[in-house]
Amino acid sequence: MSLLDELNNDFDSNNENESEKETQENIEIEDHLKVDNHDTLSPMTFEEKSLFGFLKDYENTTLNNNSNFIFKYEKDILNIIDKPLHEEADLYLLTESLTVFKDQIFTLYKDLLASYNYSQELSSILDNDPEKFCQTLELLINNKSKEVPDGSCLLNTSTLTKEQVLLVTLQLQNMPPITNNSLKTQLGALINKILKLCELQKKITNFIKIHSMKVTPNLCNLVGPTIASQLISHGSNLKQLSLMPSSNLITLGQDGKQKKSILYYSSFVQEQNDDMWRKKALRILGGKCSLALRVDYLKSNTDGKLGLQWKKELENKIEKLSTPSNVTKIKPLPVPHDNSKKKRRGGRKLKKIKERYRLSYVQQLANKMAFGKEEKSVLNSFGEEVGLGLSTSRTALVNNSNNVGDFGLSKKMKKRLREESDKVKKYMLDKGDSFVLENPDTESKDNRAVNGNIVSSKKKDGTAVQDTKDGFDSWYNKFT
User: Fold this and answer.
1) Which residues pair with 467 in a beta bridge?
2) Statement to judge: residues 152 and 138 lie in one domain
3) Residue that is last in its domain, among 153, 186, 211
4) Last residue of some domain: 211, 245, 278?
5) Rounded to whole angstroms, what are the CA distances from 117 to 107, 111, 112, 123, 204?
6) Both 250 and 200 in a single domain?
7) Which of 160, 225, 427, 442 gives 20 to 30 Å between its CA and that of 463?
8) DSSP string of 358-425?
């Protein structure tokens, strides 16, 4: 045999060994998968698990067809309830089991509605309550006579109102009696399971209400034992809940669509009428709940007085927020008196304001008229005739000492305006003198005196010449 043949034989043997190993590994994987599938699907796994293990793996399993395995843990639940001393872990275990019972009651209730044709109308009358529906349907099954059963006996056995009992009796008249034995046994088995689960659920809720008052007294007084137990069940332990901020606490147990948390269903939040006020109440309640959880975890107040105190504070706070603000009363005007009021002294500010808005000297003269003389008037921009009064007289220009316009001006500007007004006055007086004098070239300044309306001067021969204001007025009227 050549060397090439030996090498080929070696490669063939190695390939055969590798293929054998791969087949063995595939067989082992398939066996392992079969075992895993058997563990998840076989009902024997539920029997081997404890109550804690069953509740832990409940989300990954479906118990629609295996509802009998829930009753296997009835003894464990009753043992926990009947224990003389309870731990915090027992409360968590029972609160988790409540969700299992609710789900299973709902699935059995759906099966019951599907198996009986006349159940939809009856369930709508009873507000889709499984316990009430089972009690009324049991009355129809146990009826051996051909007559219609009387629904008045339901008043003693169930929590139905009088209106519901009346509607049920009317509905039972339209429903035919159940004569099929196989249907009776099927419905009876479902009814017994639902009623048994409801009784067990009531025992658990009563235990949680009593026991949660011992673990979290302040929280129970604040939101109630049922809400407190639901909060504890959602949190892994009391320590983690106490460390949780209030913003996260109000979102515990939120639904996917409605986004309503556990605290949203508390009585304090549900008492509010509007959604806006409910959100405000939920936010305020979350802060107080976080404080109550910390107090209960540290066990600094075991009486629960702080919870009651905080509840009153919340009620007062939401009442203050909801009440509208007081409308300010309009003060009526005082009764006018005939007696004139006393003069009140004004300060510097009032004095300045009066000076700023008072009438000028020319405006005051415009409101006056000379007796027996015709008043001059002008047309304003609106075409209305406005009287000038005495504002066109010589005194309006010469004696205008009321500088109203210079209020609020700087000192420099006031000085400048004063100088300009003095120049105008001087110019007007000089013009008036030159008009009145007969020979102004021969006039001496020493002999000239201007006092009011009289202007005096001397001629060459020494005789004095006097003239009144009439000459100046006739000259002034030419320019006005």
Assistant:
1) 455
2) yes
3) 211
4) 211
5) 17, 11, 10, 11, 33
6) no
7) 427
8) SPPHHHHHHT---TTSPPPEEE-TTS-EEE-TTTTSHHHHHS-----TTTT--HHHHHHHHHHHHHHH
Nearest Cα neighbor of 98 from 203, 251, 215 is 203
CA distances from 363 to 202, 390, 420 (A): 98, 9, 20
Domains in the chain, number: 3
Instruction: Please report, for the domain that includes residue 103, its CATH number.
Output: 1.10.287
Average pLDDT over residues 309-338: 83
Backbone angles phi, psi at 360, to 5 degrees: -75, 175
What's the CATH number where 296 sits?
A: 1.10.246.90
The DSSP symbol for 150 reads P
Has residue 25 got a pLDDT over 50?
Answer: no
- Among residues 135, 125, 76, 132, which one has the least CA distance to residue 100? 76
Q: Is residue 417 part of a domain?
A: yes
Strand partners, 464: 458
Q: In this structure, how many other beta carbons lie within 10 angstroms of the beta carbon of residue 365?
A: 20
**Between β-strands 377-379 and 385-387, what pairing exists: parallel, antiparallel or unpaired?**
antiparallel
What is the extent of the structural domain holding 59? 51-211
Residue 21, in any domain of the structure: no
SS3 state of residue 455 = strand
The span from the CA of 461 to the CA of 464, in Å, is 9
Task: List C-alpha distances in Å: 386 to 352, 359, 367, 378.
Answer: 30, 17, 11, 5
Question: Token digits for 59?
Answer: 């989300």
With a CB cutoff of 8 Å and minimum separation 6, the contacts of 357 are none
Q: What is the mean pLDDT of residues 117-139?
A: 77
- State how far the Cα of 171 lies from the Cα of 357, in Å rounded to an integer: 91
Residues 358, 420 within the same domain: yes
The answer to whether 190 and 270 are in contact (CB under 8 A) is no
- How many Cα atoms sit within 13 Å of 278 on the Cβ side? 14
Backbone angles phi, psi at 417, to 5 degrees: -65, -40
Q: Which two tokens stand for residue 252?
A: 């515990």
- Pair (70, 204) in one structural domain: yes
pLDDT tens per residue, range 144-171: 555 555 555 565 555 677 777 778 777 7
Q: Are residues 284 and 200 in the same domain?
A: no
Q: Which two tokens stand for residue 142?
A: 């146990």
What confidence score (pLDDT) does residue 238 get? Answer: 79
Provide CB contacts within 8 A for 329, sequence distance 6+: none
Which of 82-86, 120-124, 213-217, 275-279 is most confident?
275-279
5 part of a folded domain: no
Q: Which of 212, 272, 200, 205 is nearest to 238 (CA)?
A: 212
Is 361 in contact with 401 (CB distance < 8 Å)? yes
